[in-house]
Amino acid sequence: MIAFATTPPENVVYLADHSVVLALPALIPALIIVAVVLYVVAKDRRAERNEQAEDTPRGEGPAGHDHHDEESS
Q1: Is it the case that residue 25 has pLDDT exceeding 60?
Q2: Minimal CB count within 10 Å: which of 4, 28, 35, 40?
Q3: Minimal CA–CA distance to 51: which of 40, 41, 59, 62?
Q4: Is residue 1 predicted with pLDDT exceeding 70?
């Protein structure tokens, strides 16, 4: 009698999908690169925001408008 291995027995439990395991070596470096890019972008935006805050005189917004009430002028 010849047994074909096309369908697994009903009591077999798969613990891992091998395609996911094989994809990890490619995914991990990609996720590290994404994390580094997001870190650099966030750091650059913070630095730009701090630079604009130093250049803007106190009491003025980013567009040069006064934050004071118009009634008090």
Answers
A1: yes
A2: 4
A3: 62
A4: no
